[in-house]
Structures are given as C-alpha cells and as structure tokens.
Amino acid sequence: MRTILLISHGSHSSKTKEEVHSLVELLKTQSGISNFYFAFLEIETPSIPEGIQECIDSGATEVFILLNFLNSGKHVDCDIPQIVSQAKLKHPNILFKISRPIGQHPQIVNLFLDEVRK
C-alpha cells in the first residue's frame, strides 16, 4: 500500500502546523488518497521518523515523501535524504521515494503568475 508523507520545515508558529494540516486534508479530499500524512524536519511534531513510522503502522509498503520545500538546499539535499536512508535501514522491505522540491515543478511559474496577477 502506498502512503504519502508531506514533509515541511516546521516553525515556532502554531499557524504553520494548522496550515500544513489543512493542506493535507485538502490533498486527501482532492486526490482520493486517504493514506496521506504530514511531518516536520524540525521544531514541530510529528518528526519525519515519527511520520514514517505512522505510515508503516498504517500498512505502508511504499512511502512517498512529498517535499513541501520550494528549493534545493541543505535540508532537501542532505538532511531529509539522510533521515530517509536511516528509515530504509530500519525498514528494508519498505520502498521509499522522495519528490523533488516543489519549486522545480513546471507549473510553479503559473502559480507565481497567478499571485502576481491578483
């Protein structure tokens, strides 16, 4: 079973967790995928390892890490892949995949243009 884990940075602002939770609920509804979870790199909970464990506890055979990061950088290029590598060692029978940063998606230009035109 495929699960999706949306990874965000985390913030001291409670508003951030509320926004991420709302985003995941919208993604669940609009995608029809009920096995959609979220986790944070730092500051906020659940942590990425906790989020991965939640996916596995739900019966996941595949965990797709959906990056809620705009660009590449230390977190995207090093920190998150390292955490996922540790999870692979702990759960060798689970397939892990990581998306590219959302800023690399071809539709990002249209999203920004939509904001500019408001």
Features:
globular; 118 residues; Rossmann fold; four-stranded parallel beta sheet; 4 helices
> So what's the overall shape?
globular
Number of E-state strands = 4
Characterize the main sheet: 4 strands, parallel
Biggest sheet strand order reads 2-1-3-4
Unreliable segments of 5+ consecutive residues: none
Q: Please give the CATH class.
A: Alpha Beta
- CATH architect. name: 3-Layer(aba) Sandwich
Q: What is the CA-based Rg, rounded?
A: 15 Å
**Strand residue percentage:** 15-25%
How helix-rich are the residues, as a percent range? Answer: 40-55%
The succession of helices and strands, N to C, reads EHEHEHEH
* CATH fold assignment: Rossmann fold
Count of alpha and pi helical runs:
4
Oligomer: single chain
Task: Report how far apart the termini are.
Answer: 40 Å
**Mean pLDDT across all amino acids:** 96
The domain tally reads 1
Structural class: alpha/beta
Structure, explained:
The protein is an alpha/beta fold and 118 residues long. The chain has a single domain (2-116), classed as Rossmann fold. Helix content is 46%, strand content 19%. It has helices at residues 14-31, 48-57, 74-90, 108-116; strands spanning 2-8, 36-40, 62-67, 95-98. Strand 3 (62-67), helix 3 (74-90) and strand 4 form a beta-alpha-beta unit. The protein is globular. It starts with a strand and ends with a helix. The mean pLDDT is 96.
